[in-house]
UniProtKB/TrEMBL annotation:
Keywords: ATP-binding, Carbohydrate metabolism, Kinase, Nucleotide-binding, Transferase
Organism: Roseovarius mucosus
EC number per UniProt: 2.7.1.170
Primary gene name: anmK
Stated name of the protein: Anhydro-N-acetylmuramic acid kinase
GO process terms (BP): 1,6-anhydro-N-acetyl-beta-muramic acid catabolic process; amino sugar metabolic process; peptidoglycan turnover
């Protein structure tokens, strides 16, 4: 176990929207964030995205050689660009997530990455939590708690990640540690960009709805939205988590609509899922800080602003980087794992007791 000294860690995340690998450095002792360092991005090409998309839903033991080689080489490529890291946090590519079923599967072998980089690599962050009865996700909440401290927050606030899937963390920064009862509440809100991307690709051959430009031209189909909100997921108490394609059927709800109305409706569904989620906050947050690619979607942001009493701002409003927050989270969590500090607790994943997930792969001499 590392002593409680500050060090630079390098984190990498390949998210559910399959757009690419984010990597970023954080200086931390596993509790306090001292500084944010450089970051880099390595996009997946359309061909690579197709390889990953074909691997979605697969479990270890299935035919994954090509996708695994791709995930590992893309990570090696981007992580090799950095100097000065003492260890690496490697999330991997989530292919399947069934915490109450077959478990959770993040593709990519951290031991191979450790060999390639010559650095200790922390990986497989989610399995231990699932084994102990947790959802295994979301895991960024303990980092969000540290971010709330870093920005000097004194009142409860919430972080919303609008990635392929959405997740929210409500934080009370008056607590000393995130695992204390009442300090955080976190869960996945619902689908966010993944269905929009899927529809844009299928109908228009485009990767996503840039800035919400197409949604802006359409109207939300209220009937489809109501059917979507009937999903039992929205009645479940948190913590709770989702697989990328848990809501794949929602595409069917907009199947008869024209492109603009269909995208507007999927955008409205993502926002409505967040608004449902906000009802679970123990106290109203004083602000909602939005991270992830969806913060660029002006229509989605406007829908949230129109319905909420508190300011809804991109995390850049407080000096954070919304493109890199998840990569930074896994840098931070890697240091927590190395120090034996918990990475999740009952109010973030539903795990029975606070747990330090993750496996550390070391290379000789390091
Ligand atoms: N300018 C933009 N306008 C609208 N949407 C955008 C824009 N930029 C990015 N996005 C959306 O954000 C997505 C990428 O978001 P992000 O990188 O946060 O997701 P992720 O990390 O892969 O997902 P997750 O957090 O679920 O793991 C893109 O696929 C796209 O749908
Ligand atoms: C199983 C899995 O990979 N889940 C992701 C996904 O993408 C967003 C949401 O669903 C969140 O639960 C999680 O990622 C972030 C980084 C998290 O664990 O906090």
């Amino acid at each position: 176990m590392l002593k409680a000294e500050r060090l630079w860690a390098l984190g990498a995340m390949s998210g559910t929207s399959l757009d690419g690998v984010d990597a970023a450095m954080v200086e931390t002792d596993g509790a306090t964030i001292y500084a944010f360092g450089p970051s880099a991005y390595r996009a997946y090409s359309a061909e690579e995205q197709a390889v990953l998309a074909a691997a979605l839903g697969k479990w270890p033991g299935e035919d994954l050689a090509e996708a695994q080689a791709l995930v590992e080489s893309a990570h090696l490529e981007v992580l090799s660009r950095f100097d000065g890291a003492a260890l690496v946090g490697f999330h991997g590519q989530t292919l399947a997530h069934e915490p109450r079923g077959r478990g959770t599967h993040q593709l990519g072998d951290g031991a191979r990455l450790a060999e390639g980089l010559g650095l200790p690599v922390v990986w497989d962050f989610r399995s231990a939590d699932v084994r102990l009865g947790g959802e295994g996700a979301p895991l960024a909440p303990f980092f969000h708690f540290a971010c709330a401290k870093w920005i000097g927050a004194t009142e409860p606030l919430a972080f919303l990640n609008l990635g392929g899937v959405g997740n929210i963390t409500w934080v009370d920064p008056s607590f000393a540690r995130p695992e204390e009862a009442g300090a955080v509440l976190a869960f996945d809100t619902g689908p966010a960009n993944a269905p929009i991307n899927d529809l844009m690709l299928a109908r228009r051959g485009e990767a996503f709805d840039r800035d919400g430009a197409l949604a802006r031209q359409g109207e939300v189909a209220q009937g489809a939205l109501e059917l979507f909100l009937d999903e039992p997921y929205f009645l479940r108490m948190p913590p709770k988590s989702l697989d990328r394609d848990t809501f794949a059927d929602m595409i069917g709800l907009v199947g008869e609509l024209g492109d603009a109305d269909a995208v507007a409706t999927l955008t409205g569904m993502a926002a409505a899922a967040v608004l449902r989620g906000m009802e679970h906050c123990p106290r109203p947050p004083v602000r909602l800080l939005v991270t992830g690619g969806g913060r660029h979607n002006r229509v989605m942001m406007q829908m949230l602003r129109a319905a909420l009493d508190c300011p809804v701002e991109p995390v850049e409003a407080v000096g954070l980087d919304g493109d890199m927050l998840e990569a930074q989270a896994f840098a931070y969590l890697a240091v927590r794992v190395a120090r034996g500090l918990p990475t999740s607790c009952a109010s973030t994943t539903g795990v029975r007791a606070a747990v330090s997930g993750g496996t550390i792969s070391r290379v000789e001499g390091v």
